[in-house]
Structure formats: C-alpha cells, structure tokens
Amino acid sequence: MEENLRRDSHRAQSSYRELEISSRGTCLSEVEGWLAYLKARVFWTSNLAISHENCGLFVYKISKYIHGLAARGVHYIHRPGPTLQDVGFIVLPELGLDKAYISETLFSFIFLSFFLWTFHPFIFKSKKIYTVLVWCRVLAFLVASQILRVLTFYSTQLPGPNYHCREGSKLARLPPPNSAFEVFLLNFPRGVIYGCGDLIFSSHMIFTLVFVLTYQKYGTRRCIKQLAWLLAVIQSFLIVASRKHYTVDVVVAWYTVNLVVFFIDKKLPELPDRSGGASLLLPLTAKDKDGRTKEENHKLLNGNSGDPADWRQRTQVNGKILEDGNTVHADGAMNGA
After folding, report:
1. Which residue out of 67, 75, 198, 249 is catalytically annotated?
2. Is residue 310 annotated as a catalytic residue, yes or no?
3. Contacts of 119 (CB under 8 A, 6+ apart)
4. Domain interval for residue 198
5. What residues does the Sphingomyelin synthase-like domain cover (predicted)?
6. Which of 20, 24, 255, 311 counts the highest number of beta carbons within 10 A?
C-alpha cells in the first residue's frame, strides 16, 4: 500500500514538473513571439520612415519656427485697447485667471491621446494605419493651416482679450528689440505663452480639429469619434470662456481647418492597405497562419488573386476604415446599397 502511494506521489510530482516546464515554455514562446513582432514593427516603420524622410517633418519644423517668429513680430506691433464686443463673451461667463488652466488641460489631453493612438500599432498587433504616413498627413494639414493663420493675423491686428494683453499690463506691448538676435530668439516658451496679437484664427483649434478629423477618417471606434467631436466643441467654448480668443477666432478656425483638410487630403496619396505585403514582415503564430490560409482561400473564391499585393480588407472603402460594429457590407456600400 505504501509503495503504491509513493509511486502515485512520484508520478504526480513528475507530471506537475512536466506541466510547469511546458507552461514556462509556452510563456517564453509567447514573449519571444511578441518581441519578434515588436522588432519587425520597428524595422518596418524605420524603413518606411527612411523612404518618406521628405514627407514634411523638416518642413514642419521650419514652418513652426516661422510661425513663432511671426507671432512674436505681431506682438511688437500689438496695441492694447478696450475688449471688442463679442457674443461669446456675453453668453459665456469668464473663467478667470484661477481657472484658465482648464482649457489648456483639455487641449493637452486631446494632444496626448491622439499622439498615443498614432503609435498604438507598436504595442498592439493592429494593421489599420501606418504611423509615419499618418503623421505626414497631419503635418501637411498643420503647415497649411498655420500659413493661413499668419497671413490672417498680420492682415488686421485686434486688441488681445487675454489678461496679459489688456490695457495696463506690462506684457501687452513688447519694448523695441535691442538687436535682431533678440527677435529671432523667440524667448521660448515665455514668448509663446504670453504672446499678443496673433488672434485670427485659433492655433489650439487648428491642432484639435486636425487631430479629430484624422481620427474620424482612420479611427475604428465610433464612440471615440463622437467623444472627440464633443471634446472639440467643449474646447471651443473653453477657449472663449478663458478669454484667450474672440469667438470669431474659433468660428473661422472651424470652417478654415475643415476646408484645408478636405482639399489637401484629396491631393495626398491615400494610405496603402495595411493588410498587404507589409504584414509579411511580421511573425505569425500558428493560429494566424491557419487564419491567413482560410482568408486566402476565401478571397480566391470571391475572385481575388492570390497575389499578396491584392490582400486587402473588405471593410476598407476609399481609404477609410469603417467603424467597429458597422453592419453595412463594404461591397454593398461601394455599389451604393
């Protein structure tokens, strides 16, 4: 009896060791697979970034400096005066200096959320967007919008409604520069935060609307899209309530940025399909391989070729990713059904 118990105990311990070793091997293989995937993603994106190095990052940096230079230049010619009559100022109560940070906090949240979303393919095994190409489009929208903004606020200078731009404030007017170097230095970030005169139209709304419109096109979560538009509207009210801009600055930004994005987006080449040849560089698990084989057979039955260049998602129509949970069939949508 004791021998049988010892034998059973020994077998149980051996089975437990084998199971433990097997589970460790499975965990290690999962970790190694994820690391290989991440390495392939970085490799692919690096190559993509090199091939698109002229997409606009350097141009954006130059235009950003020129925009800052123009904003500082208009501060020299800014003349403080009585705050203009504004419908938004009448309707919305003034937040005051102690609550002016609310607008900046919401803007920072929108900016950070969009930035993290564009880099989510590095963490999750998503094949929806190319991070580099999305930012190329975003930078193109921002450059065009800021050029129009510089032309607009230099055309007519309005007395700034912000607290540090009103009559009696020492920051409302800049003293004449002692040298050209003082002008080109920009006094960052103080010169940017306490600028005056660069009003029409709002720079905060440029960034907010460009981010929202980009996610509207390439995002997949309908609820997040609706939340993004709601936050953009709230941001508009907060900018006026904090007296950083007149209502006209926000209104002009709404239709100008939308038009800029609409026309430039039609000129830029559409993003390539992420389900194409790029995915061949990524390591596949056995489950993914089985799924890909079934997908290839299904597409061959539907009349698609087996060429990897023809592997495209049925839910992608005219370069737009349909939202999750959309019940409309893509082929029917393309046929007008």
Report:
1. 249
2. no
3. 131
4. 56-267
5. 195-263
6. 311
